Structure formats: structure tokens, C-alpha cells
Amino acid sequence: MLRRSWLSLFLVLMSAPVGAQEASAPNVDPPSASVPLAGQPAPNAADWQDVIAAQIQAFRDHDAPKALSFAGAAFHQSYADPQAFFDAIMRSGYAPIMQSASQSFGRYQMLDAEHVVQEVKLTGTDQTVYEAVYQMAKEAGGWRVYGVELAKTQAGLENKIRDLEREKALLAERKVEPVKEEPKTAAKKPTTTPAKSTTSKKSTTKKKK
Questions:
Q1: How far apart are alpha carbons 6 and 27 in whole angstroms?
Q2: Containing structural domain, residue 56
Q3: What does residue 18 show for φ and ψ, rounded to 5 degrees?
Q4: CB 149 within 8 A of CB 8
Q5: Residue range 7-18: average pLDDT?
Q6: What are the b/e assignments for 136-158, b being 16+ CB within 10 Å?
Q7: Which of 3, 92, 99, 191 is an S-S bond match for 12, by CB 3.0 to 4.6 Å?
Q8: What is the pTM of this model?
């Protein structure tokens, strides 16, 4: 998979002022299939997945206050204005989340009882596929988003290449081949054979004698 790593939302928004340039972040290994922690009840994935889905929808709707409401407490401390939070997310390379048409949940990994990472597949209106890894933390008010890493998948690139090849084939079908004309040959002029003069032959014979 060809990956483009983004800083987690927490690193982008908390370590730099709004409008600062993005820096590259180390790749985060995708979560493995979750196994309940020793001595802990099996987690209910729907608890944090509902929060992720609700924030994604808020971004699609450009509902800044609602999108911020699902972010962790640290974001609320830094962004009193929800619109400033929304704009910062847009400038940080997360537009594919807002432009997505659908999402589906993959594997998740419990780090401890109050922290989990969750895979989310996002599909755009042009069928480009992105994979996101959400970092979630459990606060007093429930699960909240603390970070996201976004990457374009190989499947998304293959879909784009397939679309380009399809367009190329359609253009080739519409192209009209020029009709090949046979090379024109110059019209041959009728040749006339001059009549043979019998008198000239006789005169020539006489001279030879």
C-alpha cells in the first residue's frame, strides 16, 4: 500500500499555531484484531465507533460546533471558536474526511481500558479510498477523538488508474479513422500508331539497289 502519512490531529493542532506548515510524522502500525485485556470485560466497539461516525458526518455537514464536540478535551482548551478548529482541520490535510461519501470500520486495538485505536475506511464520491486510524480516549463524557492518521490506499490509486484507462478506451472508440483513398493515377493518353507509308518503303528499296 502506498501511504501518505499525516500528523495526528493532536500533533498538528496542539504543537503548532493555526496555519503552521505540516511536518511529517512516523508511520503508525495498523491495529491488529482486538483481544480483550486481561481482567477487563469485552469492549463494546459501537461506543467509540458511533462517536467517530458522528464526527465524520459533522465534518461533511460543515457543522463546526458539533465536530468539535466529539474531539478530546485538549482541543476544547485550544479552540474556543469551533470555526477556527474546523478551518485548522481543513488546512491540515484532512479534507478527504469531509469529502467522503461513506465510511466502514475495520480492526481495532485496545491499548488499555480507556484508549483504543480504530481503523476506518473512507470512500470518496470519486471512489478514491482512504484508510484512517483514529486514536480514541475515554473521558468523563464518553469516548472522544484524540488523533487521526490518514492514508490513501493502493485500491484508491488502482480505481483512479482504471477510470483513466476507461476514459482512454472511450476516446479511442469515438475516434473516427480517416478513409484511406486509393492513390490517383494520371490518365493515360490514347496512343495512335501512324500509318505506314508503302511508298516510302519502295523508294528506300530502290535506293539500296
A1: 9
A2: 43-159
A3: -60, 135
A4: yes
A5: 36
A6: bbbeeeebbbbbbbbbbbebbee
A7: 92
A8: 0.59
